[in-house]
Amino acid sequence: MYSKIHIQQLSGREILPYLRSLARLRVEVFRQSFCNEFREFDQEYAYLKKHVEAKESIAILVFSNTTLVGASTGLPLDTEDEKIQKPLKEQGYDPSRIFYLTESVLLKEFRGRGITHHFYEMRERHAKQKKRFSLICLTYPEKISEDFPSLLHFWRKRGYVHHPDLYLVSSHKGKGMKKTYWIKSVQGEDPLRRNESKKS
Q1: Measuring CA to CA, how many Å separate 78 from each of 75, 162, 182?
Q2: What would the pLDDT profile of 134-149 be if each residue is shown by its tens digit?
Q3: pTM of the predicted model, to two decimals?
Q4: Backbone angles phi, psi at 74, to 5 degrees
């Protein structure tokens, strides 16, 4: 059957009508991909509400005809949980100047079509247009299922720098998962630049 793929970009409260479909998709993909960390539907729905409440957030939705088959999200780091901000703040980074790329999910049968490139191009462009952000960051777990494609080489090609010394440990059902940070410059600044306001 012919499948028509189209991509839609949303921000803030524009995401609300799609929240339930987005939460269901994330649960489905994460169950297949992550070794020991995934949230149930209610937890995903609650987490995604942050993207609705943050007016500078972004959600990129991929539809096959009318079915949601992929999504990629991001929001200002200073609207995220303190546990995600803390490792960066402790090293002098200013969360208000960082845009945080949250997860991307895509059903297996739609991978390999270049959609991931759109996810990053659109989110990076969104962060640059907001002006207040000088850095983009993401976190990545050390252990992940072989069904989930590695993006390490892809990130390096896009200019992301791995910081293994910057990490957080999240827990799920009594098990811990270490995630390290990858950071990229938005406006051409040094991606290792610290928050200068703390030095003044």
Answers
A1: 8, 21, 17
A2: 999 999 886 654 555 5
A3: 0.87
A4: -170, 160
**Amino acid symbol at 89:** K
CA distances from 149 to 22, 74, 107, 112, 183 (A): 20, 20, 12, 10, 20
User: For 167-188, how does the pLDDT look when each residue is reduced to its tens digit (9 = 90+)?
Assistant: 998 765 556 678 899 999 997 5
Q: Which residues pair with 8 in a beta bridge?
A: 61
Q: Is the dihedral of CA 152, 157, 160, 161 positive or negative?
A: positive
Contact 146, 108 (CB under 8 A): no
Strand 135-141 relative to strand 175-185, pairing: antiparallel
Count the helix, strand and coil residues of the chain and give each as a percent rounded to the nearest 5. Answer: 40, 30, 30
Give the sign of the dihedral formed by CA 35, CA 39, CA 45, CA 47.
negative
Three-class SS state of 106? strand
Q: What is the DSSP string of 9-75?
A: EE-GGGGGGGHHHHHHHHHHHHHHHBSS----HHHHHHHHHHHHH-TT-EEEEEEETTEEEEEEEEE
Average pLDDT over residues 44-70: 96
Phi, psi of 36 (to 5 degrees): -145, 10
In order of their start, the domains of the chain are 5-198 (3.40.630.30)
Q: Which among 53, 46, 99, 97 has a CA at the least distance from the CA of 74?
A: 99
Structure tokens at 115: 């959609």
